[in-house]
Automatic annotation (TrEMBL):
The chain crosses the membrane at residues 12-30. It comes from the Bacteria. This is Stage IV sporulation protein B. Coiled coil: none annotated. InterPro entries: PDZ_sf, Peptidase_S55, SpoIVB. Keywords: Membrane, Transmembrane, Transmembrane helix. Residues 200-428 form the Peptidase S55 domain.
Length: 428
């Protein structure tokens, strides 16, 4: 009997833990499926269909124009988010919608912003990219063979991958050449590297190792620039552009490269490596880094893409080529197309939107798409490297940009919501 009671207790504990885990997973999955922010166009009705067992309560007005009040009252309005619902906005303002699971358990607050209708020009042009880092990026450390025949690793456990060297003994450093010159100049004594680490400035004392009669080394691998090929996503009538749909990360540290300056260059696609299962394809091209081939200036490198200004690129397009910016709620599962250059000219190619994830943490992967265009499949096998930034268009609205390819299926890929790109650098 005692054993039976003991087994019953264990069984009930297992059942309790099982349902607790299920409830926790349900809570977090529903919370993740909800966006942190929703944009709605001023003076328009916007439809939403989350299909979640959640009630939303519009409980406060953050800011509203003095000239005109919003149609959404500031007192609490209950919304059943398990069913399709419509929000109608005023001319301006921001609101908070408190979301509760089953109307009881707090999940999160969603900020609702009223925005003006926006227009940009979808591009699809291939571009050469060159950026210079803000300081010299440390990739890692290494062993140094000294003039005395011994091996040393002077920077081991002192510097970290992802650190930026911005000075030596208080003298500013902008590139590798300056860094090497200063190390050789002050190498006979300990030097202080002025480091920027996670936005904070620190000083690190290191003893250089003499490797030849006039050469000293710290045993660090560094990088001060990078270059590559991508696709221009959009440009507006002020010449402000966005490209790639994702940031430029260092290939070795996988960190977002901190930008000092950068340029877009004219490029020519010379060959295409088709994508295959397990092997991503690639657009390869030539870039002439002559000043006459500069198309524009890159002013920021963010997780949502690179941004800047270009009057040259703007001259290629006419004002009537502008297209309305589609918001997340405008995107539907179904036919769409992407705009890119894989045949010597910019063309539109058919794709299918197969999934839309507007929840949190979907910065670059909110749209899942599949290439259905037979001609594009024949040329590239689907999505390949270099097509990042290709605008995604549906129902005559630009809704996003291609960001990633599925390694195991090159016909499929991810895209970023265009509103996320535009908001990232305030280019509207």
């Amino acid at each position: 009997m005692k054993n039976s009671k003991y087994i019953d207790k264990i069984l009930w504990m297992v059942i309790f833990l099982f349902f607790t885990v299920i409830a926790g997973l349900l809570y977090h999955s529903i919370k993740k499926a909800l966006p942190d922010e929703i944009n709605i166009v001023a003076n328009q009705e916007q439809q939403f269909d989350f299909g979640l067992p959640v009630n939303g309560f519009i409980k406060s007005v953050i800011e509203v124009s003095d000239m005109e009040k919003s149609n959404i009252p500031s007192n609490q309005v209950k919304i059943n988010m398990q069913q399709p619902f419509t929000l109608k906005s005023g001319s301006s303002g921001s609101f908070i919608m408190a979301c509760k699971l089953f109307g009881l358990i707090n999940l999160k607050n969603i900020k609702i912003d009223i925005v003006e209708k926006q227009y940009v020009i979808p591009c699809g042009e291939p571009i050469g990219i060159y950026i210079q880092t803000d300081g010299v990026l440390i990739i890692g450390t290494s062993v140094v063979s000294a003039i005395d025949g011994l091996n040393y690793e002077p920077s081991y456990k002192l510097v970290k991958s992802g650190d930026y060297i911005v000075g030596v003994n208080g003298i500013s450093v902008n590139n590798k050449s300056q860094l090497i010159d200063l190390i050789n100049e002050y190498g006979t004594e300990d030097i202080v590297l002025n480091i920027r680490r996670n936005g904070e400035m620190i000083g690190i004392k290191i003893a250089p190792v003499q490797t030849t009669l006039n050469e000293y080394k710290l045993g660090i691998w560094v990088r001060d620039n990078t270059q590559g090929i991508g696709t221009l996503t959009f440009i507006n009538e002020d010449g402000k552009f966005g490209a790639l749909g994702h940031g430029i990360n260092d290939v070795d540290t996988s960190t977002l490269m901190e930008l000092k300056s950068g340029n877009l260059y004219q490029t020519n696609i010379v060959s295409i490596i088709k994508g295959e299962k397990g092997i991503p394809g690639e657009l390869t091209g030539t870039i002439d880094y002559n000043k006459t081939n500069i198309l524009g200036d890159i002013t920021s490198n963010t997780t949502e893409g690179i941004f800047g200004v270009s009057s040259k690129l703007l001259q290629k397009f006419t004002k009537n080529s502008s297209m309305e910016v589609g918001l997340k709620q405008d995107i539907k599962v179904g036919p769409a197309y992407i705009r890119c250059d894989v045949e010597g000219e910019v063309k539109d190619y058919d794709v299918e939107i197969i999934e839309v994830n507007s929840g949190e943490n979907n910065v670059n992967k909110g749209i899942v798409l599949k290439v259905t265009d037979e001609n594009l499949l024949k040329i590239t096998g689907g999505i390949v490297q270099g097509m990042s930034g290709s605008p995604i268009i549906q129902n005559n609205k630009i809704i996003g940009a291609v960001t990633h390819v599925f390694i195991q299926d090159s016909t499929k890929g991810f895209g970023i919501f265009i509103e996320n790109m535009i908001e990232s650098d305030n280019v509207e």
